[in-house]
Amino acid sequence: MKIIVFGATGGVGQFVVKQAIESGFEVTAFVRTPAKLEVTHENLTVVKGDAFNPAEVAAAIAGHDAVVSCLGSSQGMKKSTELQEMIKNIVAGMQEHGVKRIVYTASAGIYNELPGVSGKLMMGVLKNALTDHRAATDYIEAHGLNYTFVRPMGLTDGPFSGKYRESAMGVPEKSKSISRADVAHFILKALSDAQYENTSIGIAN
Fold this sequence. Notes:
With 205 residues, the chain is α/β, with parallel strands linked by helices. It has 6 helices and 10 strands, in the order E-H-E-E-H-E-H-E-H-H-E-E-E-E-H-E. It has helices spanning 11-22, 54-61, 82-97, 116-125, 127-142, 180-192; strands at 2-6, 26-31, 44-48, 66-69, 101-105, 146-152, 154-156, 165-168, 177-179, 199-204. The strands form 2 sheets. It has an 8-stranded mixed β-sheet with strand order 3-2-1-4-5-6-10-8, sandwiched between helices. It has a two-stranded parallel ribbon with strand order 7-9. Helix 1 crosses helix 6 (180-192). The longest helix is centred in the middle third of the chain and has 16 residues, at 82-97. The protein starts with a strand and ends with a strand.
């Protein structure tokens, strides 16, 4: 399978690129700053580009079987529509080149699904980012693509375990976090398993 990864120099994106290559995928990393990508391989193509540039995005998507988005907003906790803007370019590029499959890395909380007082507090803190992610996922869903939305709990730099729990629509019980390496593992699993098509999955260790 030939995949293109947006946000390939981010915390999760780097792991997606490394693990995908190790698993035999052909990988294109779409990055603003190629020097930040720490991996090289004969099955890795690095494309320098800006996800806010529709022409660069569309040109990069051509010829791929699937898209992986690990994009984040540069605005942190501030109000932003950056994710929506970038995903609109990606969806347009996918439609232009007949690419149907996308795995989008969002965040737990986009459906107001985090339980308890601590969950409400966390969703309050992350409100702006969650709003932007939710708008992006709604946009993907509205355009008839074959999607998987990944909703990880709090991201950590913990080691890869390959052991995590999944929950459709909600989040795994009594869960707080998941390592970025395990999020990447789930993303690649979702690409290879039809049961994850058109689903939204909460994941946690």
